[in-house]
Amino acid sequence: MKKISILGATGSVGINTLKIIASNKNKYNVIALTSYKNYKKLAELALKFNCKYAVIGQKKYFNNLKEELFGSNIKPLAGYKAICEVSSLNVDVIISAIVGIAGLKPTFASIGNAKILAIANKEAVICAGHLLLNKARLKKTKIIPLDSEHNAIYQILQNENKRSIKNIILTASGGPFLSINKNNFKKITVADALKHPNWKMGKKITIDSATLVNKVIEVIEASILFNLNLKQIDIFVHPASLIHGIVNFIDGSSHLVASSPDMKIPISFALSWPDRSVTKVKFIDFIQNNNLSFIKPDYKKFPALSLKKIVANSLFTKSTIIVLNAANEIAVDNFLKKNIKFNDIVKIIKKTIFKFNHIEVKTLKDILSVDCEARLLTNGIIKK
Ligand code: MG
Question: Assuming Cys at both sites, which of 48, 232, 243, 347 could form a disulfide with 167, CB separation 3.0 to 4.6 Å?
Fold first, then answer.
């Protein structure tokens, strides 16, 4: 039986992982589940999967969690330190699916203790990917990306030489506003932005998909994970979300990975690696689906796309990426709270990047300090 832990068990990646585990109960043994504040759901899942540890991020919910788990053998824990501690337990696969920079320390803690780190926490990859990858190489933890596009590219590149790659293409659904006139962007509400056409996901990433900041984050993520230049990574809008990634090789061949837009496929790939398992996901009916079209993204309509160039031209690339990420997290949070408009999100990110005193980033401490400073700056910009 494979031992599995899930960081962010009550989020959409966590829930999908547990759905796969539920239909393969004899294959997996759940060790630890964590959640930031959803103690009820966490307790329900912990009992259902009879895990060893259930950890709630917010300490104020510890007693609630303890009560829910009363009479079971599951050990309730609380706080960020406890999340980091259970992250360092020995497992076969750890699913890193905490949203945002909060996932960074637990993800680091898992390296060397998990055989496979299946990572959905893209913020950790873009802010600290170089450190993560180095540590993983040293400690022999295999990193498998769960982001659908990156998982597709990973599948294609498994037995390929980096020198054979010409470029890669990440597809974007275009989000809910692909065919809305730019003049109407001012009027976009939180409810509008939360309606993603193809993927069911958490709130933060759904907003990121609507602004297309998500796609810029993914380009950066791909450049780090696959050690490619930002110029080698293109974005194509592919509204059907059936083809997730394309690799063009120097010999003229293109390899694509296609599947129904369902996170169970990348998750199942990581859980079963190096084998594959049967999932309940529907195959694409290529006869019925004759809409495998691609279009160039509209840079005028989606100013977020220009962030790629800003990062590529920056003298302080790492610092710029961390600031971009922090400013985006704060701006999205304020949009969800209706403090700012949809249109303001990218403007605020750009302002924060340009105003920030960038530094050379080398250590985890540098990353966290740039992140913290950037958040203060963004909050200041929003309050003005
Ligand atoms: Mg993605």
Answer: 232
Q: What's the pTM value of the predicted model, to 2 decimals?
A: 0.94
Structure confidence at residue 247 (pLDDT): 98
Give me the residues near ligand 1 (ion), CB cutoff below 5 Å.
Answer: 147-149
Ligand 1 centroid to residue 41 C-alpha, Å: 25
Q: What is the DSSP string of 132-167?
A: HHHHHHHHTPEEEE-SHHHHHHHHHHTT--GGGEEE
Q: 345 C-alpha vs ligand 1 centroid, how far in Å?
A: 19
Ligand 1 centroid from CA 214, angstroms: 7
CA of 30 to the centre of ligand 1 (A): 26
- Which long-range contacts link 75-84 to residues 24+ away (Cβ below 8 Å)? 77/53, 79/55, 80/105, 82/55, 83/7, 83/34, 83/55, 83/57, 84/109
Q: What pLDDT, on a 0 to 100 scale, did the predictor assign at position 10?
A: 97
Report CA(149)–ligand 1 centroid distance (Å): 5
pLDDT of residue 240: 92
Mean pLDDT computed over 124-132:
95
For residue 146, give the nearest of 7, 251, 44, 35 by alpha carbon.
7
The CATH number for 2-146, chosen from 3.20.20.70, 2.40.10.220, 3.40.1160.10, 3.40.50.720, is 3.40.50.720
CATH number, domain 314-384: 1.10.1740.10
Distance 72 CA to ligand 1 centre (A): 37
The whole-number average pLDDT for the span 110-118 is 98
Model confidence pLDDT, tens digit, residues 58-68: 999 999 999 99
**Span from the CA of 207 to the centroid of ligand 1 (angstroms):** 13
- Residue 283 CA to ligand 1 center (angstroms) comes to 19
